[in-house]
């Protein structure tokens, strides 16, 4: 393989320009996201009524989770773009946070759909766990499930004996830690399981609310809002699933355009990882009348 120092000067400058453009596109995008999230979290903290409602507590939890997911992925992206290498012992925590928060998102969507189901069907006898003062039990359970599987995933693999986890500098990428076939199979099966279970839960809650609409004594408006909320969680799940389309997009781009592998990887990262994570919480936040009213005053 040709060394970078042996490449023509114009090729090196083109690569440097490409890296600068990618960084200049990603960083402002991420900063705007952080500002929007900061505004929403500030509203939650300063207005107690939001912290007394389970739905908004779960939404705030989703905002924090997506922020951690994007923060870890952007740091990893910058390290790869800058060819920054460090020991695996420092790389694994970043990969762990990125993986755990990625798997946490569909579980949060399922939990939020179930919360709407419980609120509609048990308005007066709501289970204690779903009350605002006990919802943290469910949040901790969801976070535990999201964390335990990455630990298993990293534990079943075998590292190269020539690599010292404490001192050998490596490029912090998933393939460095998840290199064995059994890890790839475990991760693929786990992602399919996560998204399939969440899809079933969202479909179940939506159909149940739809079928029971006429039997409920509550006003039609609140039931209609609950249906729209659950349907939106399904849309959010579809946005998250775009992350799994990268093999298809890579094949299409390779067949129809003469792109470099790193350009294809950036295209997939920006369009199918960054933008969906950016849009999902913002659309949910701005479509809520209570939040939208406070955001307009901020």
Automatic annotation (TrEMBL):
Its main location: membrane. The chain crosses the membrane at residues 20-44, 56-81, 135-156, 188-211, 223-244, 264-286. It is found in: Membrane. Keywords: Membrane, Transmembrane, Transmembrane helix. InterPro entries: GPCR1_Superfamily_Member, GPCR_Rhodpsn, GPCR_Rhodpsn_7TM. Residues 36-284 form the G-protein coupled receptors family 1 profile domain. Pfam families: 7tm_1. It comes from the Eukaryota. GO terms for cellular component: membrane. SUPFAM superfamilies: Family A G protein-coupled receptor-like (SSF81321). GO terms for molecular function: G protein-coupled receptor activity; odorant binding; olfactory receptor activity. Gene3D superfamilies: Rhodopsin 7-helix transmembrane proteins (1.20.1070.10). PANTHER family: G_PROTEIN_RECEP_F1_2 DOMAIN-CONTAINING PROTEIN, ODORANT RECEPTOR. This is Odorant receptor, family 95, subfamily A, member 1. It comes from Seriola lalandi dorsalis. The lineage of its organism: Eukaryota, Metazoa, Chordata, Craniata, Vertebrata.
């Amino acid at each position: 393989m040709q060394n970078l120092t042996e490449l023509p000067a114009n090729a090196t400058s083109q690569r440097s320009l490409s890296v600068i453009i990618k960084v200049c596109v990603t960083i402002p995008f991420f900063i705007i996201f952080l500002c929007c999230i900061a505004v929403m979290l500030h509203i939650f903290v300063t207005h107690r009524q939001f912290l007394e409602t389970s739905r908004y507590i779960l939404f705030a939890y989703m905002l924090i989770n997506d922020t951690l997911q994007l923060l870890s992925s952007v740091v990893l992206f910058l390290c790869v773009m800058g060819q920054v290498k460090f020991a695996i012992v420092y790389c694994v925590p970043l990969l762990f946070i990125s993986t755990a928060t990625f798997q946490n998102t569909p579980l949060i969507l399922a939990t939020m759909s179930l919360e709407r189901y419980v609120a509609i069907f048990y308005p007066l006898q709501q289970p204690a766990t779903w009350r605002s003062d006990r919802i943290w039990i469910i949040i901790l359970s969801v976070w535990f499930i999201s964390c335990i599987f990455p630990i298993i995933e990293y534990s079943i693999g075998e590292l190269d004996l020539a690599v010292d986890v404490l001192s050998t500098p490596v490029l912090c990428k998933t393939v460095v830690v998840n290199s064995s076939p059994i890890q790839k199979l475990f991760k693929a099966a786990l992602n399919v399981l996560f998204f399939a279970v969440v899809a079933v839960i969202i479909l179940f809650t939506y159909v149940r609310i739809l079928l029971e609409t006429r039997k409920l004594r509550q006003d039609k408006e609140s039931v209609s809002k609950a249906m729209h909320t659950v349907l939106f969680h399904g849309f959010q799940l579809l946005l998250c699933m775009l992350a799994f389309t990268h093999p298809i997009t890579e094949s299409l781009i390779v067949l129809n355009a003469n792109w470099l592998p790193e350009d294809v990887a950036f295209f997939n990262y920006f369009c199918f990882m960054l933008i969906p994570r950016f849009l999902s919480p913002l659309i949910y936040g701005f479509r809520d009348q209570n939040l939208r009213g406070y955001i307009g005053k901020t």
